[in-house]
Amino acid sequence: MAEGEVSVLVGGKAGEGISSAGQIIAHLLGQLGYRIHMYFDYPSLIKGGHNFAIIRGARGKIGSVRSRVDLILALDQETLRVHEGRLNDHGVVVYNADTARYPPGIGIAIKSILAAEEAPPVMGNSAILGAFVKAAGIEWAFAEGVLTKSFRKGTGQNLRVARRAYEASEERLRIPATGMTGLPGFTGNEAMGIGLVEAGLGVYLSYPMSPTSNLLHFLAGYSDEVRIRVIQPESEIAVILAALGCAYAGTRAAVGTSGGGFSLMVEALGLAGMAELPVVIVVGQRAGPSTGLATYTAQADLEFAIHAGHGEFPRLVIAPGDAEESRTWIRAAMDLAWKYQIPALFLPDRIICEGMYSLDPSVTMKSRADPVMAGPDIHPYLRYAPTDSGISPLRFPPVKGEVIRVNSHAHDTDGITTEDPGITRTMAEKRQKKMLGLAAEIEGMHPVNIAGDTDATTGVLCWGSNKGICAELGETLSLRVIQPVALWPFPEKSFAEAMDGVERFFGVETNETGQLVRLVRQFGYRADGMVLKYDGRPFMLEDLEQELRRVMA
Amino acid sequence: MKGIDLISHAKNTWCPGCGNFAVQHILKDLLAQMDGGGLPLENVVLVAGIGQHGKLFDFMNLNGFYSLHGRTIPVATGIKLANPSLRVICVTGDGDSYAEGLDHLIFAAKRNLDITVLVHDNRVYGLTTGQFTPTSPYGYRGHSTPRGEREMPLNPMDLMLAAGATFIGRGYTGRRDELKRLIREAILHRGFSFVDILQICSTYNDLTAYYNERVYAWSEEDAGDRQAAERKAGEWNYSDDAKIGLGVMFRHTAPTFEDAYPVPGKMSPDERAGWVARILSERS
């Protein structure tokens, strides 16, 4: 085991509950005081195929996994065939003795355990969990508490299955408690859901698409409790237009999709810009182009997000780097969308969406200013009234004696269509003024993170889920890690401060061409090299370390 | 409130003789009357698509959302989610609702969304200078089909019946009084109401004589009978020489989308914080 940390791989067929087993292991490690990250890898199918999760626990905050692991939990032989090479010296294998064979490991006769409890085959993952608990030297009483909270249904039966497997297993190593306070584990999708609720979400709309489907499911599951409506319309086009209808009538709406669905939304993105309607659009990035790799990751939609749509209009683009930033910045994105009456794009990558992170509940961001509302004494109400900030005070129908118009055409202050050159120009400038205010406000929100060796003169530039892995390598390799969270309007001032003293820097991105590297070049920063990955998989800690050393040499 | 107060200061740019004038004046008179009769004007929202019909948005003093081509209905869905007490009237065109945004029309009918969709069906693209639309008659000659269109038109009446619309009617701008009554009933209908308005395009597709020879009023006694509605829908295929029925073709009541998704009460900041604290602690 690497000093003070542990890595576990659990694998099996799709439909065997690999993701939930992985999540429960993550919760166990989290409650032992580890800071965790889980990577879940699955092909795009419902049953069969090979699924696996790697769960890593460490003493410091992490956002990546190693390719080497200390324990392999194999529900089938395929898991061992594919992953045996990852096992560290003295690593332990726990396997389903009915379907796999690995003599040095701990074989568990899962079928007979399930038969003894009259449990369905899907509870095989509970057996492997119970066997893991014993193999890892974790106290049963402690594990029982975490498992009880984690099973979504059939808790008693799952616990009995786990307990039988625990008894049949043997202690091979000891994962000690760290002595630090346990933190809960959340996926980015869940953290975004929490942040949206905190942001006063009224309606969430989505057409299902990986990797944001689980955000749809999370909010749908809690919709009654948090008093929101979750709607699944006929297409992404309907999704975003309905969100804009909500905005017109005063209800906060958000939508979730991936690049393909966002492509369909682009026409309405321009409508949001022109009509000045707030909306939060979550674009969970997966490997494209086109259908691409439906369940694998990429960071290849940054330029698309910044440039999508014809014409020029203000927008906000945020890329969170972990679950905490997913929670806090999506709330900020909603508040800013409403304050400036603009579309806000929230751009997690698939690792953020479906990966699990320790979430420190104390990391929050205070809510931004409320939207600017028009008082009842203003008559006639003009939806696009000119102001110094470019922000026109809002009112929502019905208002007796007033007419409230929003318009996709060039329009006058009352929202009536115009082709007049002077009005066209004045209104375009009004919209751009909002961008200036937004850019200034963003600078005050710590939009650029610095991590690793913050005094180093060699920098690593990254965004999104590469935050965690780069921060960790920044410590190891004495590199200054610069991670902009707000990407548009680009926080020039904060970025300059972060780069102050950096003599050379290297981009790390999960795309083929270095989109953030290209973006910062507009502002005068030229990277000295790049490490890029575009095979749908995230960087593993050892691999990126090697690549960085190579590119910096 | 007088109807004339509902006409905005925006300069009217429709061609003389355009069928849109009839719809505009019917709407202004109707809404002015209804303002005193239980439908306050401020509760009305006009959602317009793109086409000559969409200019109604500019020409009337009504709350409005001037949307994209084909995209009135999803916007209306959002408005109704936010505030079901608003009375949303989508004014759309035949290109708008039968071509670019056809899926939305079908889904609004499927959901029984409580809105009114008025399709200004002039059976030609006017704003883009006279190309054929989904309801243009077979053989229609326009700039894009100089030798005549080779597709049969879509029958929107059949389509709406199949999609589950709970109010389906057809009007004609040359029969103003009947059209006014039809639109009034559509607005008052609880659920999805659809009116295909045959209106002439005085520049590109003036079918005044054709319609005048063929239109007649449907008997509405059997408007609740689906089989009768199917028969009526099939009388004329939007191309041949059959009689063209006008009025309410089908009407029945069913639970609405708004019934299925009522607006919940808002959470207080304390309740919200309490929920978040609970979600976080459940995993600790």
What do you see in this structure?
- The complex is a heterodimer of chains A (553) and B (284).
- Helix content of chain A is 38%, strand content 21%.
- In chain B, helix 1 crosses helix 7.
- In chain B, helix 7 links the parallel strand 5 and strand 6.
- With 284 residues, chain B is α/β, with parallel strands linked by helices.
- The chains are: A alpha/beta (553), B alpha/beta (284).
- Chains A and B meet through helix 1, helix 7, helix 8, helix 9 and helix 10 of A and strand 2, helix 3, helix 5 and helix 11 of B.
- Strand 17 (405-407) of chain A pairs parallel with strand 2 (63-66) of chain B.
Features:
heterodimer, A: 553 residues, alpha/beta, Pyruvate-ferredoxin Oxidoreductase, domain 3, Rossmann fold, 8-stranded mixed sheet, 7-stranded mixed sheet, 18 helices, 38% helix, globular, B: 284 residues, 11 helices, 16% strand
- What about the largest sheet of chain A? 8 strands, mixed
Radius of gyration of chain A: 25 Å
Q: How many β-strand runs of chain B? A: 8
Going by CATH, the homologous superfamily of chain B would be Thiamin diphosphate (ThDP)-binding fold, Pyr/PP domains
Report the order of strands and helices of chain B.
HEHEHEHHEHEHEHEHEHH
CATH class of the largest domain in chain A: Alpha Beta
- Mean pLDDT rating of chain B: 96
CATH topology of chain B: Rossmann fold
Helical residue percent band of chain A: 25-40%
What coarse outline of chain B follows from CA principal-axis ratios?
globular
CATH architectural designation of the largest domain in chain A: 3-Layer(aba) Sandwich
How many structural domains can be distinguished in the coordinates of chain B? 1
The CATH homologous superfamily of the largest domain in chain A corresponds to: Thiamin diphosphate (ThDP)-binding fold, Pyr/PP domains
